[in-house]
Amino acid sequence: MVCRVLSVIFSVLLPSLIFTTGGSTRPLPGPYQNPVPPQTTRDPKPTPGQDEVLRLSSRLVVVPVSASDAAGQPVKDLTVEDFVIEEEGQPQRIVALGEPGKTAVEISLLFDISDSLKARVRFEQQAATGFILQVLKPSDAVSVFSIGTTPKLVRSRTTRGEDAITGLMSLESAKEATAFFDSIVEAALYLGKTAAGGSRRVLVVISDGEENYSKLYKLPDALRELQKNDCLFYSINPSGQALNLNKVSLKGQNSMEAMSLQTGGKAFVPEKIEDLEAVFRQITEELQAQYLFGYYSADEKPDGGFRRITVRAPKRSDLRVRARQGYYAPKA
Prior knowledge:
Number of helices: 7
Radius of gyration: 21 Å
CATH topology of the largest domain: Rossmann fold
Largest sheet: 6 strands, mixed
CATH superfamily of the largest domain: von Willebrand factor, type A domain
Shape: globular
Order of helices and strands: HEEEEEEEEEHEEHHEHEHEHEEEE
């Protein structure tokens, strides 16, 4: 009898201490604990002599959502009731995990230092410096990577904007090839390992996306790791209209648009280098108005499979809604 009681208590209490966000398991601090009561099920037919075990489903799927009006301006006055989230076509019971734009942000800035962008590096650094100063709050963190022959962590995760800026300004352009997809995967994995629980994870990439040297990963790998590590992908291509001049440039931009579309981010192509500051300002405004929703998936299969997500605002047909298009379930 004692063993049976302990078994039930242990199986009830342990899952409540842990949440699975997307494809990774981590504790969620403070206000993110137990936002929706987990679903409870019982093993239907315990074998003779086997204690009945109470099981709790606690796979919390986190979904950052951006909503903008016809002019492209972020809309901040929406509630959970304005949205519908479906997983594989099935409506989910959703909950807000914080006020719009108030949840912590973990950012990785990725700078392409290859020779093709040499003339623009200094201006890019100055624009990114302003971005860090505008977007970073005390609860936020930032890291800096360079994209070259190999991915390089220039500044590890820090909550101090001045430290991130120092790392950023130390970057120098180099006559190197571009291991673009290797760099994206490296940064996504880094955020997956270092980001605080309950935070939004954001990659901001300044590059033309022209891959020519990755040894380990390709576009499908980058898409998978961005989704598995719950990352939003924003890209800024400083090439402007010059990207239409050749197939390599177009392919690079198409890859960045695919990653932004799948994760709920956005791909920017400013007309001229002077527009970079306005682009960074737009990303800042979006992050400061972004909603963070969550739901418990009813699909408990630990098969590592991809679950498709759709997010709509049916009562507000005038809005454009962007969100991740799916996640990877944990794998046993």
